[in-house]
Amino acid sequence: MAPPLRFPVSDHSDGQRFFNPSGQRPAAAFSALIKWGYQRLVLRQKINWPKVIRQNREALVPQPSLCGKTAVTFIGHSTFLLQQPDLNLLTDPVFSERASPFFWVGPKRARPPALKLTELPRIQVVLISHNHYDHLDLPTLRWLAREHQPQFITMLGNKTWLEKRGVKNVVELDWWQTHQARRGLEVTGTPAQHFSARWPWDRCQTLWGGFALKTPTGRFYFAGDSGYNQTFKEIGARLGPFDLALIPIGAYEPRWFMQPVHCTPDEAVKIHQAVGARQSWAMHFGTFQLTDEGIDDPAIALAAARSTHGLEPMDFNVPDFGETKWVG
User: Fold this and answer.
1) What's the CA gap between 130 and 287, in Å, rounded?
2) What is the pLDDT of residues 86-99, one digit of tens each?
3) Residues with Cβ within 8 Å of residue 292, at least 6 apart in sequence
4) Contacts (Cβ under 8 Å, ≥6 apart) of 293
5) Any idea what the Cα angle at residue 318 is, between residues 37 and 316, rounded to 5°?
6) Using CA atoms, how far apart are residues 315 and 275, in angstroms rounded to an integer?
7) pLDDT in tens, 43-75
8) N or C, where is the chain less crowded by C-beta within 10 Å?
9) Structural domain range at position 131
10) Residue 42, in any domain of the structure
11) What integer pLDDT is reported at residue 30 of this predicted model?
């Protein structure tokens, strides 16, 4: 007898696991990992990052109630604080020292979070795009659940896992599914080309994606993690245009390994154009060394891509850690 279906059968799920409709799969076979490790360690194709970089500015928590706009503050990696007069929202909050299941080994922060957890305003909503350690940071989520009791919005398959570990009030979404998180905040799950895993044996058992937000002060798009694909045009057509898009630009080398799951800065510009973003901010750079490019390479490559595609720096910017943008 076939096991009962865990999820709705769709173009990205067989009812038990998830997959990319494009057919793209991450090159994560054991032989591929050995090849990548050989290139990094023996051929020294990895560029080492500085161990610690102190931020240039002191991050301050804005007061959006004074202007009726959305304040978007870059905390680090894929973590942003979005503030409106009656809402404080976090994307993929990662405040731990390492993006790893272990506290003594694994990718370590090159830059500290621009704000400490204790400096955050009262958080009402938290978005979690997928379960990789640099996006789903369980110690941070437990702290937020205990101290702030927000609503957590994530993708299919993550709710039970989180609730078993003390993170309550979880809503999970499928792609294109919409949730009215609170008055004035509509959250829609969006497709991405990626994968999920916390360990080698739980691969693709939970869904990955991004989020489109419809609010009184504008429309926002948080892309999560993704390789480049044609779905972004559909996201723009169905849910855009967006006043601000948050798009990853880092963790893309070597391309033979990362191409299915992480976009290059040039591809990030194409995503910006495809979703119809009036402005974009870069994310997923300069915090954890996950792949082989240098710490400044994504920003340099993004500047070149802007020039190639005829964009101005204000169209697609690389934020400083702790910088705030006002939208609306």
Assistant:
1) 18
2) 899 999 999 999 99
3) 39, 40, 45, 46, 47, 253, 254
4) 47, 250, 251, 252, 253
5) 115
6) 13
7) 566 788 998 998 776 777 777 666 778 999 999
8) N
9) 49-312+322-327
10) no
11) 58
CATH of the domain at 159: 3.60.15.10
The backbone torsions φ and ψ at residue 137, rounded to the nearest 5 degrees and listed phi first, read: -105, 100
The answer to whether residue 37 sits within a structural domain is: no
Other CB atoms within a 10 A radius of the CB of residue 28 amount to: 15
* Nearest-angstrom CA–CA distance, 135 and 93: 7
Taking the complete model, does pTM exceed 0.90, yes or no? yes
| Cα 240 from chain centre | 18
Q: 14 Cβ partners below 8 Å, 6+ apart?
A: none
Residue 16, domain member (yes or no): no
Judge whether 173 and 7 are in contact, CB under 8 Å: no
- What is the DSSP annotation of 114-151? SS-GGGS----EEE----STTT--HHHHHHHHHHT--E
Where do the H-state alpha helices sit in the chain? 30-41, 138-147, 158-164, 231-239, 255-258, 265-274, 297-308
Residue type at position 168: K
Look up residue 1 and give its amino acid: M
What crossing angle do the helices spanning 265-274 and 297-308 adopt, rounded to 10°? 50
Q: Is residue 26 part of a domain?
A: no
Separation of alpha carbons 120 and 117, rounded Å = 6
- Residue 102 DSSP label: S
Count of domains observed in the chain: 1
pLDDT at res. 38:
67
Position 75, amino acid: I
Q: Please tell me the distance from the alpha carbon of residue 136 to that of residue 224, in angstroms, as a whole number.
A: 11
